[in-house]
Amino acid sequence: MDSRKEALLDGLADFLLAEGLEAASLRPMARAVGTSDRMLIYHFGDKDSLIAAALERIAARLVAQLSALSAPHPVPADALRPRLMDLAQADGTWPFLRLWLQIAARAAQGDALYAGVGNAIGRGFLDWIAAQIDAPDDTARRSEAARLLVVIEGLVLLKALGLDGVCRPALDQGP
Q: pTM for the whole thing?
């Protein structure tokens, strides 16, 4: 990929993290990265390809953040849960999670682009969680990872609704 397209992707990722999917129209995105809507289409083919590429760039940034948090050795799920909760509530993570909720909402409305992108991101996060868990076998590891993903997704949704304060007391009660 050429350096101009790389720079556009970085700028588009910044724009979507700051402004969200509601602002994802060609002209505002083009203005944000210092080009024209025609040049965006030239580089990406169409708006769906542009959005998908920008969301992939955002997912790669989140993976980099997650990689920095990876433990040197797998840990029990109960030890991982508080770390994931802290991550989900961190200010630096919130732009990613807010965008994640927007992707999920569009997927729930039947938008195939967001359903596909959301599925890929969700599976990637599930795989990352599973890789962090110490469990007796792969079935147990995947089950614990799914359980943690459900907990974190609930926390994200409740945070978006201003109810994040109810999460930690409820989760501190144990599994």
A: 0.88
In terms of average pLDDT, the best of 85-94, 110-119, 155-164 is 110-119
CA distances in angstroms from 74 to 135, 174, 175, listed in the order given: 8, 20, 19
Residue from 74, 73, 61, 63 nearest 142 by CA: 74
Residue type at position 67: S
Domain carrying residue 155? 70-175
Same domain, 110 and 34: no
Give the pLDDT confidence score for residue 174 in this predicted structure. 54
Number of domains in the chain: 2
CB 116 within 8 A of CB 55: no
Q: Which of 64, 92, 108 is the last residue of a domain?
A: 64
- Angstrom CA distances, 111 to 2, 93, 106, stand at 30, 25, 6
Residues 48 and 125 in one domain: no
Place of tokens 């732009």: 95
